[in-house]
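Fold sample X.
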Amino acid sequence: MLRQLPIASLLVMLVSSQAFALPPPEVMEAISRQQKIQERVAAANSVAPPAPVVAAKAAPTPPPVNVAAKSVPPAPNMMLAANSAVPAPQPSAAANSALIPEPEDEPAKPANPTKIVLDNKDWEGAKPEDVQAVLDSTLSAITPYMNIHPLGNILVRHTQKANPDSLYEKGPHGEYIIELSSGGNHWAQYVYQFSHEMCHLISNYDLAPNNSSRQQWVDESLCDAFGLFTLQQMEAQWETKPPYPNWKDYAHNFSQYADDELKQPYRKLPDGMKFGAWFANHQQQLSDDPYAEQRHLSEVVSTQLLPIFAAKPESWTALNFLNLGDDSRDKSLLMFLADWQTNTPPEIQETLGQVQQLLMPGR
């Protein structure tokens, strides 16, 4: 889903990108086909950002607390994983600084940055400013893989629904909307859910809505794998740059959450069965329903995809070029993957070749 910007702006971003060479003509044509969609939400970034949180005078920071991982009872359709609450944050000295850098000292900012805007204040006891800090930190971890997707303001709200979601409907000014079912101070679960839903936005989910391609299960599997990958990245990020200094000890919970997810029995292949045989038995079921068996089928695929991308993390930028092919008809898996590879820059096509070999061996 390319953010609804004028076509000229998208072309400028594509040409100026230092990460890749100019994508092939098919990508440009796909973007052009979406011009009418983009024009309808041209005001996507007109929502004012939330008022900045004014930090109270910082109390002395308590000694670091070793946070032990705890199991969190899963909501319906959610998977059991390690999680724990964290101590109240103590803002760093920089948070209370009255110094304003001179304009020439400020880093260059993209013309249309992605910004998280909390759409409600009910987070089951968690402070909204803490939720904001966690989501901003997660956004920082995944930004290198977003490539051509400055998404503008994204409204994020808490939901009582069992599962998180990226809505097809937009906000009052055309903003994308993400709903998270996580609550309280279970930051690892926030990261897992939010990065999964951000993956849908990056991968152009609204260009192929409601399983129109019949291959939406590929998106679901990739986004689950991306969520697990992001958890692994967040440990290193919080060990050196947590949102608050005394949150540093929480860092190991991110990788613990990912590890616990990967150990779930429903992610494993039956004893003695190769993935190819398993996939042949379940491909039609996945095509009919990308959420089949409470998402457990797509999570089996996710577990197989994760090591392919983890071996070459820059390949996650391939998400930007998903769903850009002709979506006017039901696609075969071969056509879906071929479109993805054709629209992807050459330097990351090798990884997509491995994905195709996994899902369609011998092709």
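Fold sample Y, listed below.
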Amino acid sequence: MDVQALREQLEQHRPITVLDIRVAESRAEWAIPGSLWVDAYHAVKQGDYRSFAALDLPVGAPVVVVCEMGSTSQLAATYLRSQGVAAESLDGGMRAWSLAWNLAELRLAGGVTAIQVRRTGKGCLSYLVSAYGEALIIDPAVGTDVYREIAAARGLNILGVADTHVHADHLSRSRLLAQDLGIPHYLPAQAAGRVHFPFQALVDGDRIPIGETVLTVMHTPGHTWESCTYHSPAGGVFTGDTLFLDGVGRPDLEARAGEADERARALYRSLQRIVSLPEGTQVLPGHAGGSLAFDGIPWAAPLGTVRARVPLLQLSEAAFAQTLLARIPPTPPNHSRIVAWNETGRWPEDDPTVLEAGANRCAVR
């Protein structure tokens, strides 16, 4: 079964069991929502299928077996079929699944809607912010056709595409969309020479029009120096990798020697600016804390809830910087290569899932 077929099955809530046979460490890193797990990977490679005996798998109902890249799962699926189970293997495994997506919508005030496009495996969140038949795309992270199809289905005219910063965990699809649709590509202004392609630079206080509403640009450095947050007067704030629902952005990626502390302090000041917005403002971040279910529930929360949920926001600047730097998670794989591609604006000839596979590690909690 390919990723698109499985994605559609889950989206339509059809009866299907996803059986994850990867090792515990891989499972803990990321997983398909609602999947069943058995630590059988090494045993299956050796032809040992005893770990499946204790599983209560449906007879006659579909089962999709998942491993890392789709090879060992084929062995498991073949064995399960010999036992009367309607089993298939997920083509390309979890590496291919990293491109799967689902949707949720959040209605703000004044006819403004945030359509949340969730790259379910990596937890990447992008948005079509729509109002009065027009839309702006923020931080696109899945195929360009996805955004075009969503807009077409809702009768939306896409006016532009904006990134909150130069991303390190996924390849931005913004330049591809801008070229395909002939629309502006907005990026926060940055140090000269970082990004090597034309874009429309944004600075603090700029406004991006969408129909009869606007998004106001807030320069919120810290995760990167150029990071921006986009505030909607309709009651939403698109925070990118600056503020999450359960943590804050990491300040160390691509940092020069000794620069992480300076960026941590800048992040503190940026966060104080964000949390000064009305507490009912919906926080719409650039990532979720893990894989996202096909439940249609937006990954969003009122700012007052987020402020209470994230203890780091209660600290002084010095304590915040010290605590933040002590909690930096492992460095995400391939981040330097991904940043390099995003800075050039070119697209790799190789399969992008090789670069992007794995959960994101942009948050500090």
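Sample Y note: The chain has twelve helices and 19 strands.
Also: The longest strand covers residues 112-119.
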